[in-house]
Amino acid sequence: MQYQIPRGTYDILPPESRRWQKVKQIFRSVAQSFGYEEITTPVFEQAELFERSSGESSDVVQKEMYRFQDKKGRNFALRPEGTAPVVRSYVENRLDMQSRITRLYYLGPMFRYDRPQAGRYRQFYQYGMECIGSDHPYYDAEIIALQAAFLNKLGLKKIELEINSVGCPQCSKDYDQALVKYFEPFREELCPDCQTRLQAKPRRLLDCKVAQCKAIAAKAPVQLDYLDQACREHFEQVQSYLQLMEIGFTINPRIVRGLDYYTNTAFEFLNPSLGAQNAIGGGGRYNGLIEQIGGKPIPAVGIAGGFERLLLSLEQEGIELTEVSYPDAYLVLMGEPARQLGIRLLAAWRNQGLSICFDPEKESFKAQLKAADNSGARYAVIIGEDEVKAGTVTLKNLKTGEQQQVGQDSMLSCLKVKPFENGGPAE
Ligand code: HAM
Questions:
Q1: By the number of CB atoms within 10 A of the CB, which of 223, 233, 258, 301 ranks highest?
Q2: Which protein residues touch ligand 1 with a CB less than 6 Å away?
């Protein structure tokens, strides 16, 4: 029996795993530089949390959620996205009591049952950030700026930003009415899904992938024409802040987000050369969500992006990010007393931050030195009978062939290895 990985998932193998590590590291450092702090929530939550927040009629809830019952018959779901869990945690842990503005970022796997294709997976990895506590348009621009800074730091150049406003619940109502009026005469030509959506959630029709529905939707009224005064001003101010921050954007009045919780600003970062799955990040404002899931009426804005599409974009632009890393040293041990001492020293040196390799199955001096050369290490650290007696090691520079005797205690400083600060390496 040969086991296979589930469809729509993937393994991250070395050396690819190094690129993932690097991208996560860059994301964390950029998010922290904007004052965001990391939050980690479970990969599963009560299914109802997503039903209420993403919307009963959304594709995510209708078709894509991995639901399961635990042994006590409780309904859970693997998280399809990160915002609802962050908001659940914010409300449950009363984070509003700690500060007026809460800036959080997260990284982790999300799960959506959809037809896999390039850039679309059933388990995918998201990074995201949420700024909770204010309706001020500055924060919409800040969250966009954070995403832009991250993409910048990665070196990506071919990404486009599109923004829109989906208004507040009041202007949404007017817009929904306009949509129903527009689509009603085409009812018979719409796909069965759209026919049922027409009364409950008319704006879902704008997101339908069926060609016939798409053609009809192309001429539908746009939300921007139905914004009330306050929503229009909010959107204009977001644009002014983006201009001040020198972030290029285009207004796309047809952006429809797949999740129901958005109010006012909605945006997407696109890489047009990625094909059908070209959104490398998206988000917006969600002023009603916190109250909707049991908290106070606190406004918020956020964004999330997919690592897979980022990595595809990096590949397309020929951006490497990582260099091949070699060990600092390779340990060569001759004779039993040297092996006993060497393995003790090996553990101590590794604890102090030295990257050093050793192969216990190679015994001859020649075989060990050859392995040292092949490893790409800078130095061979050689211990034989003489070194055991003298309390030294022989350091051989593997590039120049130069040799030098140094004390076992001063070996690390000779290699100029910095011991780990704060007890261990960062991820
Ligand atoms: P979303 O647009 O559903 O928004 O997903 C955000 C990003 O996750 C997408 O732009 C895409 O890069 C990636 N993504 C989504 N589905 C898949 C998939 N099946 N395979 C690979 N990548 C995928 C959200 O999830 C919201 N929580 C964003 C947000 C945060 N809004 C406010 N705060």
A1: 301
A2: 81-83, 112, 114, 119-121, 124, 126, 128, 130, 258-259, 279-284, 286, 302-306, 308-309
Share the mean pLDDT of the chain.
94
Q: What is the 3-state secondary structure (H, E, C) of the chain?
A: CCCCCCCCCCCCCCCHHHHHHHHHHHHHHHHHHCCCEECCCCCEEEHHHHHHHHCCCCHHHHHHCCEEECCCCCEEEECCCCHHHHHHHHHHCCHHHCCCCEEEEEEEEEECCCCCECCECCEEEEEEEEEECCCCHHHHHHHHHHHHHHHHHHCCCCCEEEEEECCCHHHHHHHHHHHHHHHHHHHHHCCHHHHHHHHHCHHHHHHCCCHHHHHHHCCCCCHHHHCCHHHHHHHHHHHHHHHHCCCCCEECCCCCCCCCCCCCEEEEEECHHHCCCCEEEEEEECCCHHHHCCCCCCCEEEEEEEHHHHHHHHHHCCCCCCCCCCCCEEEEECCHHHHHHHHHHHHHHHHCCCCEECCCCCCCHHHHHHHHHHHCCCEEEEECHHHHHHCEEEEEECCCCCEEEEECCCHHHHHCCCCCHHHCCCC
Q: Contact, 323 vs 372, CB < 8 A? A: no
Q: What is the pLDDT of residues 140-160, one digit of tens each?
A: 999 999 999 999 999 999 999
Joined together, the tokens standing for residue 423 give: 């007890």
Q: How far apart are CA 127 and CA 281, in angstroms?
A: 9
Q: Which amino acid is at 147?
A: Q
Q: Which atom of ligand 1 is nearest to the CA of 286?
A: 32
Give the predicted TM-score (pTM) of the model.
0.90
| pLDDT at residue number 417 | 65
Q: Is the peptide bond before 15 cis (omega within 30 degrees of 0)?
A: yes
- How far apart CA 263 and CA 223 sit, in angstroms, is 11
Q: Is the pLDDT of residue 426 over 70?
A: no
Residue 237 is encoded by which pair of tokens?
């101010």
**Pocket residue to mutate for ligand 1, from 113, 124, 139, 140, most atoms within 8 A of Cβ:** 124
Cα separation, 410 vs 86, in Å, equals 49
Distance CA 159, CA 116 (A): 23
Return the residue whose CA atom lies nearest to atom 31 of ligand 1. Answer: 283
- Give the span between the Cα atoms of 123 and 103, in whole angstroms: 26
